[in-house]
């Protein structure tokens, strides 16, 4: 089962310039890849690489190709090649964000992807920085975001603040997320996080540490709570 938060990644693909049928096919392949379909991941990579060959400046295709490479890494056996593929994917997403630093959809795609990567490599910490920047942009230019994106950005920025020990900042961000109730399921999670007992406010800041044994587990193993971007966000 793909988390409702994961729906966001697929949303971004709708902003790119691929033909409608091709875009839908890429969305479908990415969606299947999120659920663990290795063949779909390979096919999605082929499609995105083909788009970049004719649209070298398509940063949406670039950021999603990078995300797809991390899915390929997930499917590889443990070893140097697995880590190399992961780093290749992250590097490609970084290139897309560097080329379009003010495009929130591209940064959001990277943030959602890296939030699911091994903490031992520092990627979730980088994701939290992205969400903090996105929240600042949402404050000054909300017109650049859809309602669902604002909800997700403020929710995750609140988690980032809570992880840094800033409970009051987290509450302020979750209050902003509550003002954009695009997804009822996510809205429920926001309410739960704000509950004094049982929510994030009752827990110590989340640790970024991860044991070597945990790192040996398949990267990006599909989980119910995965924050992976969802195929409907893919705009090429």
Commentary on this structure:
By secondary structure, the chain is an all-alpha fold. The chain is 62% helix and 0% strand. It contains 11 helices and no strands. It has helices at residues 7-12, 20-34, 38-54, 59-75, 80-99, 104-114, 123-140, 147-163, 167-178, 184-193, 212-215. Helix 2 (20-34) packs antiparallel against helix 3, helix 4 (59-75) runs antiparallel to helix 5 and helix 4 packs parallel to helix 6 (104-114). It starts with 6 loop residues before the first helix and ends in a 21-residue tail after the last helix.
Average pLDDT across residues? 80
Radius of gyration: 17 Å
What is the count of DSSP helices, taking H or I runs of 4+ residues?
Answer: 11
Q: Give the number of DSSP strands.
A: 0
Helical proportion, percent range: 55-70%
Low-pLDDT runs: 1-6, 204-227, 230-235
* Structural class by SSE content: mainly alpha
Task: Indicate the overall shape.
Answer: globular
Q: What can be said about the biggest beta sheet?
A: none
Q: Between the first and last Cα atoms, what is the distance in angstroms? A: 25 Å
Element-by-element helix/strand order: HHHHHHHHHHH
What portion of residues belong to β-strands? under 5%
Map the helices and strands.
Layout: H1 7-12, H2 20-34, H3 38-54, H4 59-75, H5 80-99, H6 104-114, H7 123-140, H8 147-163, H9 167-178, H10 184-193, H11 212-215
Compact description:
The protein has helices at residues 7-12, 20-34, 38-54, 59-75, 80-99, 104-114, 123-140, 147-163, 167-178, 184-193, 212-215. The chain has 236 residues and is an all-alpha fold.
């Amino acid at each position: 089962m793909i988390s409702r938060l994961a729906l966001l990644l697929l949303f971004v693909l709708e902003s790119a310039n691929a033909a409608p049928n091709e875009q839908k096919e890429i969305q479908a392949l990415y969606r299947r890849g999120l659920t663990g379909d290795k063949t779909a991941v390979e096919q999605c990579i082929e499609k995105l690489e083909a788009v970049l060959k004719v649209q070298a400046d398509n940063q949406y295709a670039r950021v999603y190709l990078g995300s797809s490479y991390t899915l390929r890494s997930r499917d590889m056996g443990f070893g140097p090649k697995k880590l190399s593929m992961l780093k290749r994917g992250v590097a490609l997403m970084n290139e897309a964000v560097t080329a379009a630093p003010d495009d929130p959809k591209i940064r959001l795609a990277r943030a959602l992807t890296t939030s699911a990567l091994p903490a031992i490599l520092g990627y979730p910490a980088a994701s939290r920085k992205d969400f903090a920047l996105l929240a600042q942009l949402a404050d000054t230019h909300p017109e650049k975001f859809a309602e669902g994106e604002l909800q997700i950005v403020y929710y995750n920025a609140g988690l980032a603040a809570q992880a840094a020990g800033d409970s009051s900042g987290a509450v302020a961000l979750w209050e902003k997320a509550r003002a954009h109730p695009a997804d009822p399921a996510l809205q429920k999670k926001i309410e739960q996080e704000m509950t004094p007992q049982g929510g994030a406010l009752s827990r110590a800041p989340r640790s970024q540490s991860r044991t070597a044994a945990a790192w040996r587990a398949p990267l990006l193993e599909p989980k119910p709570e995965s924050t992976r971007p969802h195929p409907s966000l893919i705009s090429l």
